[in-house]
Amino acid sequence: MKRIVAIFSVFMVGILSILSIAACQGQHEHSFSPWEITKSATCEQGGKRQKVCTVCGYVVSEDTPMLGHNFVHGKCTDCGASEE
Ligand SMILES: [Zn+2]
Ligand SMILES: [Zn+2]
Fold first, then answer.
1. Which residues form the domain of 21?
2. Cα separation, 64 vs 15, whole angstroms
């Protein structure tokens, strides 16, 4: 009976080490930090943002859409551009 327990614990240790090796190689569910703006979008240009996995450092970056002018009475309230 003791022998079965010993075999079982070796088996469990094996499983655990396989799991931790997988984690080291990025085979895990990434745990991302909140989006961080790396380039702010403006009226006429898109921006960029990125998020980083806190476990393995994997970076995902994506473009953010440009904001577009916000014309009030023919003038943009954000950048001051005139409406044509
Ligand atoms: Zn990760
Ligand atoms: Zn504008």
1. 1-29
2. 42
Alpha-carbon dihedral of residues 11, 17, 23, 24, nearest 10 degrees?
-160
Q: Do both 21 and 10 map to the same domain?
A: yes
Domain count, the chain: 2
Per-residue pLDDT of 57-72, as tens digits, reads 999 999 999 999 999 9
Residue 21 burial (C-beta neighbours within 10 Å; 0-12, 13-18, 19+): exposed
Residue with tokens 């009030």: 72
Ligand number nearest CA of 76 is: 2
pTM: 0.59
Q: Measure 42 CA to ligand 2 centroid, in angstroms.
A: 7
